[in-house]
Amino acid sequence: MLNRLFQVLALASLATAADPNYEQLFRPFVSPETEIATFSEADFAEVASPRWSTWHAPTFQAAIKPVYEADIQSIVRIAARNHIPFLATLNGHGGNDNYGRVQNALNINLGHFNSVTVDPVHNKLTVGGGVTFGEIAEPLAKAGKEIQTGNAVCVGMVGATIGGGIGTLQGIHGLVLDSLLSVTMVDAKGDMVIASKTVNPDLFWAIRGAGANFGIITSATYQIHDQTNDGNVIIANYPFPVSASRSAWEFVQSYDENIPAPLVLIPSIRYNHTTEEVILQVSVIYYGPMADAQPYLDQVEALNPISSTVETVTQQELKAIFSEGACDRGNRHNVYTVGIKKTDPDTMEEALQEMTEFFETHPTYNGSLAIQRYGSQAMLAVPDEETSYPWREINAYVLFDNIYTDPALDADVDDLSRSLRTKFEATSGFKDPQIYLNYAHGDEPLNQVYGASKLPKLRALKKLWDPQHLFGAGYPIDY
């Protein structure tokens, strides 16, 4: 922990140093098309990458938007030589507390690295480091192909991948990182490096679970698959009265031991500020024909929901539905999470009660609690030792997505979330908490995020590849 403290103090001391002349430092060594702007310049907002959340956001003294890999190489070398802290970003979806400690740094905007190439013959997809999940949807659909993705179209694909990459196709294809074949990246020396199972395999192992700690990925190649059910998905939403909540939780619990690979269950708790009612909803997603999905839908219908909405949509349309509100900017997204192995109805009832009280006493709060229950067959088919990702036994991901705009709510939101997180940890089915990195709040011990069994090798590789601690501000590996 002393080394981690040293990193924070080092960043703070750099932030107070005299501001460098960014134009003078970088311009002679980058392409003419590369844009550079300091915070005080009018075009700064156009050069810097946008930020999704205002909660504990990093601050930047300058931004640079490179065009070519050679530009990034020069930027890393010059920044390291001049002790300038930097952070490479796309849409700013890294949401944990550690990003708020990055102050007065240089933003490297990866927006120009937005190429998408589909090779349907060899079932490969190659994307630039600045591509979002939404940008791969149409090219893949045109080729009749698919890949597991996160649920929001605005999230950077590579950034989500290297932390795990969970989503609704997980039961069929596994984590997004399980489809990763290779990456090209700029390392701490400013060198271009390829990592795959056969080239720098130890680095490739580390990237698949802790990749932000090792460099800036400029391109990544993935395995893709033929579309499931011709690209069509069934989505059904069932709102329940609060009085019937127990039956909803027990239904989800019935799939703790096994859930069919094409099936997804997402129970959630929200609040309708117009009607002033708590919304308890069970969403069912099925990657297959209606005839195969119907038995699962009938199970939910038998619980007497208030209503039901069942439709068949394309995979693109499903992601658009999930992205509603999730991609909005300007809010404080104060996220907490915990992985669970079993659903405990008593814990769910307690969470419902606490959230109901919070909704009623905090009228500007727009957060939610959702449990994402995906199949694990494909994920468990990958040996644990193959990647640095540590939590393949998680059955479901509990996400406290706290959304609000008033910073005065921070303390109350933290109290609520920590209370709920503690309850879920106690009944999760795991001896120790297991935290999905991409949802982490930032206050969790490293062993809960990276796994105690993975940390020694990760720390050794970090020391080899990034001894100056240039990368990994989101969740630095402390060694």
UniProtKB/TrEMBL annotation:
Protein's UniProt name: Uncharacterized protein
Superkingdom assignment: Eukaryota
